[in-house]
Design a protein that fits this description.
208 residues; alpha+beta; Aminopeptidase; 3-stranded antiparallel sheet; globular
Length: 208
Amino acid sequence: MTRVNELAPMAQAKHWLRKHVDWLWAGVYRGVLQKNTRVLPAGLDVHLATPAELRSIATEPMWEMTQTFVNGAIARGDECVVGYLDGQLVSYGWAGYGKTPHTRGTYVCFARGHRYNYKAFTAPEYRGRHLRGSFGVLEAADRRREVRHSIAFIDYRNKASAQAEMRNGGNLIGYAGYIRIGKLLIAYSTTSARQYEFKFTNREPFGS
């Protein structure tokens, strides 16, 4: 019994650390947006979702989107590409053009003229079939915003994703990361990443 009592504070400490402390160190990649030439699989319809469509999708827990998230994304001017296979929703992916939520109250910031793709999801039974669709349908939205470049960050340990990003035209321009302890965020970006105003912050999108 004494041994169990001795271990309890340690377990509580580990739980607190998992909940309140996290960190990230990532490579920052920038590329030139290319004209879409991808041929979509037969039966796959890809388009930009309407606000009403997104709010309907958010009512289904399996899609991992809440109404709060959707309303915030719409307010920021983000776009969502959805893919329907034979009339059934199978995937989606979001694109941000300004300060964008990352996780746990942390935001990604970058210079104007860039598109940041995030929060992509494919229904489990369709994964591995390359049905996520094409971000090529964003070309008109990119032109309207005078956006010509993509920007992304990839955890330094994720070598496979980094190689895939570079194969798709992304160039490593620097590094950025943070340590978060509760509400305290200590963020850092290398000089080359700051050239494109890339950084992490915990300030609200429309705050000071």
